[in-house]
């Protein structure tokens, strides 16, 4: 019986150890080579654990061939015609005789920290009064740009449209795209051209969309101005005061319950003594 139990535990251990990375499927070690999964396309290697953790898609040679970075003028014209036929709104692309084309991109604002906005009033020194507040998350903004505009220029244009006075280096433009029923988010380089990505992907927002976010990693405090840092301190002071008040209310409630319990015990003891 003991030997049988040991063999059974070995089998269970082999099942656990042979779990495919990034997949919920579990099989026995001796059966793994006989099982075919649909976790990745046939003929391509499965995603590594690093790819799973970093939310980057597995390497796909066929997709890489499709994602060309240069097209002839004739190919650009054909893609623009196809794009305009597929788009469901009036946001079409136009090709100029010089080969530069213009069009529209939609960018979702996904900002978690407050932004500093230039107000309409002037301060004592003659400069514009700056205020800090949170932009509503998920707001989508439409920009009319050209094929020459880079990611860095698009970020500056977005901030100017909202009269944001923050340093553009605080923000990054990300692309959200779908591949093989998986959604990935990838930060774009400053010199990439968003309109070209839009043209290649087509007008479908589910296939490709753009998102403006704060830069990941350590906060670059040097990029903030003195008024911005003071606004952050005011926000922190307000949150601290709210947390302190919540703790005080909680302990006041505990104190009241203890006093009521003590009163009941004293009343009961006095009643028994009488």
Mean pLDDT: 76
Structural class: alpha+beta
Q: From N to C, what is the helix and strand string?
A: HHHHEEEEEHEEHEH
Provide the low-confidence segments as ranges.
Answer: 1-22, 40-44, 48-54, 58-66
Number of strands: 8
| Helix content estimate | 25-40%
Count of helical segments?
7
| Terminal-residue CA separation | 70 Å
Rg over C-alpha atoms, rounded to the nearest angstrom: 30 Å
Coarse morphology: elongated
**Strand coverage percent:** 15-25%
For the report, how would you describe the main beta sheet?
6 strands, mixed
Show the helix and strand layout.
Blueprint: H1 2-17, H2 49-54, H3 61-66, H4 73-86, E1 94-95, E2 101-109, E3 115-122, E4 128-133, E5 139-146, H5 151-161, E6 171-179, E7 182-187, H6 194-201, E8 208-214, H7 226-273
Would you give an account of this structure?
The chain is of the alpha+beta class and 274 residues long. The chain is 40% helix and 20% strand. The protein has seven helices and eight strands, in the order H-H-H-H-E-E-E-E-E-H-E-E-H-E-H. Strands 1, 2, 5, 6, 7 and 8 form a six-stranded mixed sheet that branches. It has a two-stranded antiparallel ribbon with strand order 3-4. A hairpin with a 5-residue loop joins strand 1 (94-95) and strand 2 (101-109). It is elongated. Residues 1-22, 40-44, 48-54 and 58-66 have low confidence and may be disordered.
